[in-house]
Write a structure and sequence with these properties.
144 residues; mainly alpha
Length: 144
């Protein structure tokens, strides 16, 4: 799979073979069998091109890694403990990457109260009703 991901385009058995042969001796039929097995498992799709096939990854390496992590995590009888143990194994660089990823996937529900109160612009035409569950009105209810 790493060879297919490396090119990020449909590849032939011959291309993979030639790339692998730079590092070791390997038979054409071995590469063909492995790519066929990957196709049968659903990891690659293939399209006929003459008498050969072009193989392309079904998902990215990152999506594959994420699916593996999700599968392993979902197998735990205590997901919170599994996460704590996993985080404990991480390097500082990995923890920073995790923080960055969490920031990317967090979508703010509304604008921060401090930003709204510091603004000198006119109030919106349809302001949200005061509601303790609405973060925009939290400052009117003693904060959160």
């Amino acid at each position: 799979m790493s060879r297919v991901w490396k090119w990020n385009r449909p590849v032939t058995v011959r291309e993979v073979l030639e790339d692998l042969q730079k590092e070791r001796s390997i038979a054409y039929t071995t590469v063909m069998t492995v790519l066929d097995n990957l196709h049968q498992k659903g990891w690659v799709r293939r399209e006929a091109e003459g008498r050969a096939y072009r193989y392309e990854a079904v998902s990215t390496r990152a999506a594959y890694a994420a699916a593996l992590m999700n599968d392993a995590w979902s197998q735990s009888d205590n997901p919170a403990a599994a996460l704590v143990a996993f985080f404990g194994m991480m390097s500082e660089e990995q923890r920073q990457a995790l923080r960055d990823a969490v920031r990317i996937v967090q979508v703010p529900e509304t604008q921060e109260p401090t930003e709204a109160s510091d603004s000198t612009e006119a109030a919106p035409e349809n302001p949200a009703p005061e509601n303790p569950e609405n973060p925009a009105s939290a400052q009117d209810h003693g904060g959160r």
